[in-house]
Write a structure and sequence with these properties.
Toxin ADP-ribosyltransferase, Chain A, domain 1, Serine Threonine Protein Phosphatase 5, Tetratricopeptide repeat, 11 strands, ANK repeat, Mono(ADP-ribosyl)transferase
Length: about 600
C-alpha cells in the first residue's frame, strides 16, 4: 500500500530512521483516538490517484479474506469532497470508503490543522483494510469516473504509548509478583490440609482452639501482599534503573521460598503452641533463623557426616547457591560466592560437595579469580581449603603470586609472602616469567615496589635480570607496555646496564619503546642510559630508529635522531636498508 519516499530521501536521512520520533507520534495517535468523537455516519475517506491496486488486494483468498495492511500512518477525512480533491488530481482516481467503529476510530487532528474546518482522522501504522463490498464507480459533474472501494478498518491498537513502553519493566514485574503471591496462597492452602500439619496440630491444643495456625498462614500471605504493594507504589524511573530492577527480581524470586519456609519452620523446628509467636515474625527473620539452624547442623561435630552434608546442601539451596550450572553462562555456586567476596560460604559449599579446585570461565582458576578481584579473606580461605598456589590455565602453568602481581593486589601479595616466605618472589611460571615481568607488563608500581623490596631483603636483586618469554627481562616488559615508572624502579635495582640487554631477537629496551611509540619511556631511557644504546642493532641489523620508522612513530623518531645523529640515520640493516627505506616501504 505505502509506496514510501524516493531513494534520495533515504540518502538524506543518513541512516537515521527517527525511531523515537515515530514512537512518540504513534503514542499521540493512540491517546487521541480514545477521545475522538466518531463520525456521524461512521465512515471516513481517503483519496488516491495514479494507484494501481494489486489483484490480491481486491480478490478473496482461500480463507475468504481480501484487503491489506497499511504499513505507515494513514491519513483520512470525514469529508468525501476532500477525498475526491486528492483522487482527481491524476489518473486512476480512487477513493477508499472506510467504515470505522468505537475501537477503530483513529485520532482527530482537526485542532492541529492549518486548513480551516479540515476534519482529518489519522490512523496508526499497520492498520488493516478489508474490502467488504464490490468496488463501484461514481461519475462526477465534470464527467470523471472515480472508483470507490467500500472497506472496513481494523485499527492497530496493539501499538504502545510512550508511557506503556517506559513502564514495561514495571508492568511485567508486577504481573510476575502478583502471580507469585497467588501461587504462594495456593501452595499454603494445600500445605494446611497435609498430614504433616495435622500431626503438628495434634500437639498444639491452644493453637487449634484459637485457630492460630490459620493466623500463621494469613501472616504469610499478608506479608507477601504488602511486598507486592510496596513495588506497585515504586516509580517507573526506579524500575528502569538496572541495579534496582535486578535487586527487585531477586527479591521476587526469593519470596515463595521464604514464604513456604516460614510454615515449614513451624512444622520442623518448633514445638508446642508456637503459631501465635511465629506469626508475628517477618519472613526474612524466620528465613535467617532457618539458615542459622542449618549452619549449626553442618558444623556440629556430634552430627553424622551425611546429616552434616545434607544440612550444608539445604543451606546452599536456600542461599540460591546451586550445585550444578544451568548453561555455560551460568557461574557455579563457588564463583558466585567468590565474586561477592563471601569467604564464609566457601567451607559450607565444600561440605555440600562443591569442588574448590574448578575454574570459571575455563581459563580462570577459582583462586586466580579471588586474587584478581582483590578478595584477601576469600583467597586465604581457598588456600586453607586446600587449593594449591600453583595452578594450570589454558595459556600456562602459573602461580598465585604471579596473579597478584599482574593485577596489582598488594594485600594478597603480602598475604602470600607471609604464608610462604619472601623467597617465593623468585617463582617463575612455565614460560620463565617472573612476578617482576607481570608487574612491569601491567604497570603495577606499588606491587613492583613491594616485590623488589622483598627481593632485595633476601639477596635476590638479580630477579630484574631474569629472562622470561622471548628471553626478555622485566625492563623489556615495562618498555614494551609503556610503563615509565615501572622502568625507573627496575633501573634503580638493576642498574642502567640492563637497558642494553638484548632479548631473543637481539632487541633492547630502546627497540621495544620505539616499536610502540612510548615517548615517556624513551625519555627515561635516553636520560639515564648510555648514548650508544641507540646504535645497538638487533639480529636483522635494525636499530631502534628502524623500528620507529617502520611503524610511523614520529615523536620517537625525533627523539632518537637527536640522540644518535646522522650516523644513526645512515645505519643499514643486514639487508642494506636504512631507516628511510623502512619509512618509505611502510608508507610513513
Amino acid at each position: 500500500m505505502n509506496v514510501g519516499p524516493p531513494p534520495d530521501d533515504f540518502v538524506a536521512l543518513r541512516g537515521n530512521k527517527y525511531t523515537t520520533t515515530i514512537f512518540c507520534i504513534v503514542s499521540g495517535i493512540i491517546k487521541l483516538s480514545r477521545v475522538t468523537e466518531l463520525p456521524r455516519d461512521r465512515v471516513v475517506y481517503r483519496g488516491f490517484h495514479g494507484l494501481q491496486i494489486p489483484r490480491e488486494f481486491l480478490e478473496e483468498d482461500e480463507y475468504g479474506v481480501s484487503g491489506g495492511v497499511e504499513l505507515g500512518m494513514m491519513s483520512t477525512t470525514t469529508d468525501m469532497k476532500v477525498a475526491l480533491q486528492y483522487a482527481t488530481r491524476g489518473d486512476f482516481p480512487t477513493v477508499f470508503e472506510i467504515a470505522c467503529g468505537a475501537v477503530d476510530r483513529g485520532a482527530s487532528l482537526s485542532f492541529l490543522s492549518q486548513y480551516p474546518e479540515e476534519e482529518e482522522i489519522l490512523y496508526p501504522p499497520l492498520s488493516y483494510l478489508e474490502l467488504i463490498k464490490k468496488p463501484r464507480t461514481r461519475e462526477l459533474e465534470n464527467g470523471m469516473i472515480v472508483r470507490v472501494l467500500p472497506m472496513k478498518i481494523n485499527s492497530n491498537m496493539t501499538c504502545s504509548t510512550i508511557e506503556d513502553i517506559l513502564g514495561k519493566r514495571k508492568q511485567l514485574f508486577l504481573a510476575l509478583i502478583n502471580n507469585i503471591v497467588e501461587d504462594i496462597e495456593a501452595s499454603l492452602d494445600v500445605m494446611m490440609l497435609s498430614k504433616e500439619v495435622n500431626a503438628r496440630l495434634s500437639k498444639s491444643d491452644w493453637d487449634v482452639r484459637e485457630e492460630n495456625h490459620l493466623k500463621l498462614r494469613d501472616s504469610i500471605t499478608d506479608e507477601c501482599k504488602r511486598f507486592a504493594q510496596l513495588y506497585a507504589g515504586t516509580t517507573v524511573k526506579e524500575f528502569n534503573d538496572d541495579t534496582f530492577h535486578i535487586k527487585a527480581l531477586k527479591q521476587a524470586t526469593s519470596l515463595k521460598k521464604m514464604a513456604i519456609n516460614k510454615l515449614d519452620f513451624w512444622l520442623k523446628h518448633t514445638s508446642g503452641d508456637a503459631c501465635d509467636r511465629l506469626a508475628s515474625e517477618d519472613l526474612r527473620k524466620v528465613y535467617q533463623r532457618k539458615i542459622a539452624h542449618l549452619h549449626r547442623m553442618a558444623w556440629a561435630e556430634s552430627s553424622a557426616d551425611k546429616d552434616r552434608e545434607d544440612a550444608a546442601v539445604e543451606a546452599c539451596r536456600m542461599l540460591g547457591l546451586w550445585r550444578y550450572t544451568i548453561n555455560r553462562w551460568d557461574a557455579p555456586a563457588v564463583v558466585e560466592a567468590i565474586e561477592m567476596g563471601q569467604a564464609d560460604l566457601l567451607p559450607l559449599l565444600k561440605l555440600a560437595g562443591h569442588d574448590m579446585k574448578g575454574s570459571f570461565p575455563q581459563d580462570k582458576n577459582y583462586l586466580e579469580l579471588a586474587i584478581s578481584m582483590g578478595y584477601k579473606r576469600t583467597t586465604q580461605t581457598l588456600i586453607e581449603l586446600g587449593v594449591g598456589l600453583v595452578f594450570e590455565t589454558i595459556k600456562t602453568r602459573t602461580t598465585a603470586l604471579h596473579v597478584a602481581c599482574e593485577y596489582g593486589q598488594v594485600e594478597i601479595f603480602n598475604l602470600l609472602v607471609a604464608l610462604k616466605g619472601k623467597e617465593i618472589v623468585t617463582w617463575k611460571d612455565d614460560m620463565g616469567q617472573t612476578c617482576a615481568h607481570l608487574a612491569c607488563q601491567s604497570g603495577q608500581v606499588q606491587i613492583l615496589k613491594a616485590l623488589l623490596l622483598a627481593a632485595t631483603e633476601t639477596g635476590k636483586k638479580e630477579i630484574v635480570w631474569e629472562r622470561g618469554y622471548g628471553n626478555a627481562t622485566c625492563a623489556h616488559s615495562a618498555c614494551e607496555h609503556g610503563h615509565a615508572d615501572a622502568l625507573k624502579m627496575v633501573l634503580e635495582v638493576g642498574g642502567r646496564e640492563i637497558m642494553a640487554v638484548q632479548n631473543g631477537h637481539g632487541q633492547t629496551c630502546m627497540h621495544d619503546a620505539c616499536k610502540l611509540g612510548h615517548v615517556d619511556v624513551l625519555k627515561v631511557l635516553l636520560e639515564l642510559g648510555e648514548k650508544d644504546i641507540v646504535h645497538i642493532q638487533d639480529d636483522n641489523g635494525r636499530t631502534c630508529l628502524h623500528q620507529a620508522c617502520m611503524r610511523g612513530r614520529l615523536e620517537a623518531v625525533k627523539l632518537v635522531i637527536e640522540a644518535g645523529g646522522s650516523q644513526l640515520v645512515m645505519t643499514q640493516s643486514i639487508h642494506g636498508r636504512t631507516c628511510a627505506h623502512e619509512a618509505c616501504e611502510h608508507g610513513h
